[in-house]
Write a structure and sequence with these properties.
17 helices, 8 strands, 2 domains
Length: about 400
């Protein structure tokens, strides 16, 4: 093993690949597999030591195909043929897995280069440089670019849009940059991240570019868009998709309101405000807002000015049945996605580049979307309700 390590280090310095026909790991994998098979047979014979007739009976040669390239291994045999190896099964000729994919998988789970290096050292006894790992993770860039520009569905019933922020090292400084994320539900009820875009700061003008790109990638209509109350954001949506109903996030509105209330009055205010946004109808909600303003309006007029100004876009959800209301009245769905991303990126501190950050967010997103294979709960019922309200647009490719 020590001899192999030295040889591997020399090959790495020469720029040899980790995998492939002439890959550094190919002889190591061969050595590991053969040692594992020998160990399995030892264990098998030890269990059958009372059967003195069974013993080793030479070795056979087997060709294995893998992403590491084709190579030959020797497989030990026993005399009575009862040995059934698990490392490489008797008729198996294809080695599963790809070391590079494993590295990408570890990276996509949020492991740092140093963590991956420690893992490879422990598992395979080899040191891999940051540059080598970076070359491997860079191989996702073409797939990332293709994914970012893929053709989208023509109609999305519900879309949530929000931005998350990351620290990037740039020109010797650490800057905060925004990743604009667009999470949609398609007509089959599947959640899908339909766009990730990098910008310097969150702004309505950049959101306009994002929406234009969605349109160019095939989106013709968005029925309902749930967003925060960034100035000019709703107008940007309506500029590109004029028929879209914009629902402002009620939770963001509540957070903005509570900033003006002293802490010792917040519980009382929130309890009464809940009667507004949890009302059973728009009429009752407006009545409760009137009552709330009578009690609190003189002290905190700025709060009620904001609610009145944004009222139409804050209350779109009241026209729909309760299951749809829960989906659209906040941006919690996309914020849940952001929380999952942050669990993966939290150990990174500041990323070394924009692309280093995008690679990780992309790989993490692919992992999350595997969990979203099941459609949104009770989607057929929701789809039926949406069709009632948007009958002429739900399945119309010419919107």
């Amino acid at each position: 093993m020590e001899e192999f390590r030295k040889k591997a280090a020399e090959l790495l310095l020469e720029g040899k690949p980790l995998t492939g026909k002439d890959g550094i790991f190919t002889p190591l994998i061969k050595q590991v597999l053969e040692a594992s098979l020998e160990g399995e047979l030892d264990t098998h014979l030890a269990k059958e030591k009372s059967q003195k007739k069974n013993r080793r009976n030479g070795r056979t040669r087997k060709n294995l195909k893998s992403s590491l390239g084709a190579f030959e291994i020797t497989t030990p045999r026993d005399r009575d043929g009862s040995f059934t190896p698990r490392t490489i099964e008797k008729r198996q000729t294809q080695l599963p897995g790809d070391l590079e994919e494993k590295i990408l998988g570890l990276y996509g789970l949020g492991m740092s280069y140093s963590d991956i290096q420690a893992h490879l050292q422990e598992m395979y006894g080899i040191s891999v440089s940051d540059g080598t790992l970076n070359n491997i993770t860079d191989r996702v860039i073409p797939a990332l670019r293709e994914w970012q520009s893929r053709i989208l569905d023509s109609v999305y019933p519900i879309v949530w849009m929000d931005a998350m922020h990351f620290k990037i090292r740039e020109d010797g400084r650490i800057r905060s940059k925004a990743v604009y994320s667009v999470l949609g539900v398609n007509l089959e009820g599947q959640k899908e991240v339909i766009g990730l875009y990098l910008g310097d700061n969150e702004s309505a003008s950049f959101w306009l570019q994002v929406l234009t790109d969605l349109q160019q990638r095939g989106v013709k209509d968005i029925l309902i868009a749930s967003i925060d109350n960034l100035k000019g954001f709703a107008e940007a949506i309506e500029n590109i998709f004029p028929k879209t109903e914009v629902q402002l996030c009620v939770i963001h509105q509540i957070r903005n309101s509570i900033k003006y209330i002293p802490w010792n009055s917040q519980r009382e205010f929130l309890k009464e405000l809940k009667l507004v946004y949890k009302a059973s109808s728009l009429e009752i909600a407006l009545h409760q807002l009137d009552l709330l303003e009578k009690k609190w309006g003189k002290k905190y007029p700025v709060i009620f000015k904001s609610w009145r100004t944004n009222w139409d876009r804050l209350t779109q959800y009241f026209k729909y049945p309760e299951p749809i209301r829960k989906l659209i009245y906040t941006t919690n769905t996309v914020e849940g996605y952001h929380r999952m991303v942050r669990k993966v990126t939290k150990s990174k501190g500041a990323f070394t580049s924009d692309m280093a950050m995008l690679k990780l967010v992309y790989l993490a997103t692919l992992n999350f979307q595997k969990r979203w294979r099941n459609s949104i709960y009770a989607w057929p019922t929701l789809l039926n309700s949406l069709t009632v309200y948007f009958e002429d647009r739900m399945f119309n490719d010419t919107v």
